[in-house]
Design a protein that fits this description.
heterodimer, A: 328 residues, mainly alpha, two-stranded antiparallel sheet, B: 263 residues, alpha/beta, Rossmann fold, four-stranded antiparallel sheet, 9 helices, globular
């Protein structure tokens, strides 16, 4: 095994397939339309990429622990609605409203985690129920109408989260730095920290982990909280950037986020996860969405490509996994 | 007589109306490998589950070196130095050998608030341990458990119990599904565990394997310990099989008396 060359080891990594796919994707789109790599298009793609990306990073850890969270899309819509409603009603400042929105999200994550670990209900059912509760609350609070958001101008919160500036011809939002920071921090947690070992063990063989004294339930509850808070943060960032707080926003994001994570090489069944893979998975799907529109394929055809990518990548990962198990 | 390492006294365990253990008495001495035998449903697994804290007992007492203990959970049992190795559930296949060895007790590099595992220290210890249990092939400690053979996995689990100084290592069917060479490997790990001061309970369907490694054989039938002092050097497989399958009490007494020194 140790005789394998560097290239062979590189190919065996779960991130290798997604990396090649991303490179091919970029090359093909650039071949069709050179504007694809224009500074403006790159800036636009990056701005939205990091918002879904923040959710996908947290989802990577949660899925590695063997669970997943379908309520993230509804929190993405709910949290900004809550923040703006509190602010517009004059109850709190924008900043306090932001903190309240994050705290409520943490509480929702806690409830998800409690149902899954204490009542032993599969996370699919718990978070599906929570999706409806949260989305329903957002619609009920607002009567289904978007909230006023124009007063964020000049707020330090808005500056810190989505303030923009130019690096050469590239328009960069602050949210990109938050995304990079989150990716580094969560990548560190997963691969270097003791908690990361527990996350992987909790997803791979929870009984073995418990037999070693690891509190698997506490780890999972923590990750549900993280997932909810990240979805909430992403929703607020998106709302500040687009100056909109629509109770319906984020619909369907849960599945797109899960797709990003599994394309990147994280196992749906738990035990194995990669933050680098997830970053690649995020870019693959966002580049695809942007690229097919740019080269003139009807936007409605987007899902056909996404579905095909998911199936192709799953086949690749399953093949790599079998090779891995065979010890080659 | 010196107190045994583990003494289980009048252990009863019932699941509803089913009596899985009826006044079972069992002990393990220091530095001793005990073979626990019995037919399916004889109560071996239940006895082991009680001792490893996985199921609570209905009544009875457990003593460790003469001191009464209560084992409410597997963590309790581990804290008391009792480690149970189940064939399929001991390790996390996705994690490396080193990460499995230290799971739940990972060494942390300073500064502690970064919660960073000391992977070099883990790998160094893992390399030494693999050598100690006699894995001859040059397997790096970063290899995932999933790519090891059944025998190598058992070796890793045993190495872990030895490293963390468990007084008693319980091996549940450690030689199941293993080839001849691998079985011999596992048996030698068990011997080296005893030689370094650990006691073991060895459960296996294959009586020949038990005979090769244990110091004393205990047989259970219908929830009771029916023979607890059989010396494998002084009896044979056929005799023990007769005890397992059931004979009259006199026949058992005769068989045990033939096979063991008087005491």
């Amino acid at each position: 095994m140790e005789n394998h060359s560097l290239i062979q080891r590189l190919i065996a990594r779960p991130e290798f397939g997604p990396f090649v796919l991303l490179v091919v994707e970029i090359a093909v789109f650039w071949g069709f339309n050179h504007d694809f790599l224009s500074p403006q298009n790159i800036s636009n793609t990056l701005a939205f990429t990091v918002e879904l990306g923040l959710i996908a990073l947290a989802m990577t850890l949660l899925m590695t622990s063997g669970e997943f969270d379908l309520s993230v899309g509804s929190l993405f819509g709910f949290s900004p609605v809550l923040m703006w409603t509190l602010f517009n009603a004059g109850v709190t400042s924008l900043e306090v409203g932001f903190v309240v929105a994050l705290l409520v999200a943490a509480l929702i994550g806690l409830v998800n985690g409690w149902f899954v670990t204490q009542l032993k209900i599969p996370s699919f059912l718990v978070t599906l129920g929570m999706l409806l509760v949260v989305r329903g609350s957002a619609l009920f609070i607002t009567d289904g109408f978007p909230q006023r958001t124009w007063s964020a101008e000049g707020s330090w919160l808005a500056e810190a989260l989505v303030g923009d500036f130019f690096i050469g011809p590239f328009r960069i939002y602050m949210s990109l730095f938050w995304f990079i920071a989150a990716a580094i921090a969560l990548g560190y947690v997963l691969t270097q920290s003791r908690t990361g070992n527990w996350i992987q063990a909790g997803g791979g063989n929870p009984n073995a982990a418990r037999a070693r004294g690891v509190n698997v339930n506490r780890v999972k509850i923590g990750l549900f909280v993280l997932s909810s808070v990240m979805a909430s943060l992403a929703g607020v960032i998106s709302s500040l950037r687009t100056s909109a707080a629509n109770p319906n926003s984020g619909t369907g994001y849960e599945l797109e986020v899960i797709a990003m994570v599994v394309i990147g090489g994280t196992a749906l069944t738990g035990g194995r996860g990669t933050i680098i893979g997830t970053v690649l998975g995020i870019l693959i799907l966002r580049v695809m969405r942007n690229g097919i529109v740019l080269i003139g394929v009807p936007g409605l055809a987007y899902n056909i490509f996404i579905g095909a990518i998911i199936l192709g990548m799953m086949a690749l990962h399953s093949w790599l996994e079998r090779r891995h198990q065979a010890g080659t | 007589m010196a107190e045994p390492l583990i003494r289980m006294q009048n252990i009863r365990k019932s699941y509803g109306r089913v009596q899985a253990l009826e006044d079972a008495n069992f002990h393990v001495n220091e530095r001793e490998i005990v073979g626990l035998l019995g037919d399916n449903g004889a109560g071996k697994s239940t006895l082991i589950k009680v001792l490893s804290g996985a199921v609570p007992l209905t009544s009875g007492d457990i003593f460790i070196r003469g001191k009464k203990v209560s084992l409410r959970s597997t963590s309790d049992a581990i804290a008391h130095g009792i480690e149970t190795i189940y064939q399929d559930s001991a390790l996390v296949t996705q994690l490396s050998i080193a990460r499995n060895l230290f799971l739940g007790r990972e060494p942390i590099k300073p500064p502690r608030f970064l919660n960073r595992m000391d992977q070099e220290a883990m790998n160094t210890v893992a390399r030494d341990l693999l050598k100690q249990v006699g894995i001859s092939k040059n397997i790096p400690p970063t290899t995932p458990i999933g790519s090891l053979s059944g025998g190598e996995r058992q070796a890793v689990a045993i190495a872990r119990a030895m490293h963390f100084d468990s007084d008693l290592i319980i091996l549940d069917e450690p030689t199941n599904n293993l080839g001849v060479a691998e079985t011999q490997g596992v048996l030698s790990f068990v011997r080296s565990a005893r030689d370094s001061g650990h006691s073991c309970i060895f459960i296996a369907h294959n009586i020949h394997h038990v005979f090769q490694v244990v110091d004393r054989i205990v047989v259970m039938r219908r929830g009771k310990v029916v023979a607890d002092d059989i010396d494998p050097k002084k009896t044979n497989v056929t005799e023990v099989e007769r005890i397992i399958t059931g004979m009259s009490d006199k026949e058992i007494r005769d068989a045990v008396a033939d096979g063991t020194p008087s005491h």
